[in-house]
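queue> pop job 88
queue> type: inverse folding (structure -> sequence)
queue> payload:
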């Protein structure tokens, strides 16, 4: 078993056993188990393991596995996540402003970016707001319709 594979296994164990809120906290937990890693190595590991920071019920963030392997899985993940995180959407010209619960904007923007909806040129996320830049006003209407369906869920 390679060092990288062993390190990934330890990361899985740590994240599964407790809520880890930051890379630095995870780095400290790894160090306690004998793994001295750089921030760049840890970032790469998190990406390879498909770990993402998500908000918990108290509004804090923690790392969790995103278990997605394709567009269908990503759509399923988005469909599970949006009703829990999305609070309000509105459109202005080619823009959609999506309000989320505290700390909910980053996972929503990431999911939208990964889905690569043809009407979406890109997203910008703050703490509780996602700005979605659409390619046209018609595209904005299609995006609004999709997002509003999640509000009613």
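queue> result:
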């Amino acid at each position: 078993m390679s060092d990288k594979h062993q390190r990934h296994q330890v990361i899985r164990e740590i994240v599964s056993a407790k809520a880890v809120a930051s890379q630095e906290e995870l780095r400290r937990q790894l160090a306690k188990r004998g793994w001295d890693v750089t921030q760049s190595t840890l970032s790469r590991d998190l990406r390879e393991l498909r770990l993402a920071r998500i908000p918990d019920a108290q509004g804090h963030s923690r790392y969790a596995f995103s278990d997605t392997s394709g567009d269908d899985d990503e759509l399923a993940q988005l469909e599970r996540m949006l009703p829990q995180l999305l609070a309000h959407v509105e459109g202005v010209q080619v823009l959609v402003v999506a309000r989320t619960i505290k700390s909910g904007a980053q996972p929503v923007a990431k999911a939208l970016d990964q889905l690569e909806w043809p009407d979406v040129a890109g997203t910008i996320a703050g703490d509780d707001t996602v700005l979605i830049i659409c390619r046209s006003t018609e595209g904005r209407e299609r995006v609004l319709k999709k997002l509003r369906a999640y509000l009613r869920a």
